[in-house]
Amino acid sequence: VARSSHRSAVTGTTEIAIVVEDAWQSRGVGSLLLDALLAAAETRGQRRFKADVLADNRPMLRVLARLADVRRRELDHGVLTIEFERRPVAGAASG
After folding, report:
1. Which of 26, 36, 46, 82 can pair with 14 through a Cys bridge, CB separation 3.0 to 4.6 Å?
2. Model's pTM, two decimal places?
3. Helix crossing, 58-67 with 29-43: angle to 10°?
């Protein structure tokens, strides 16, 4: 399940959530969903995103490190709130 749930008018940040069923984890599904969700949001002018990730969810943190430029990170009770922008796609035309 991937969804863009909420856009804050104050910060211009869109909150996103992705859930991958246990049986489908470690197959690249999270990477594909995140990339598609961010690309779709960007076509609608949304560039800055926010997600809550369990601090021990190393696979998703690696996906974010690969696909995103993290702008802010805050830890509270084992949950990382991460604000980020999608890293430019290699080979994509600019403008």
Report:
1. 46
2. 0.76
3. 40
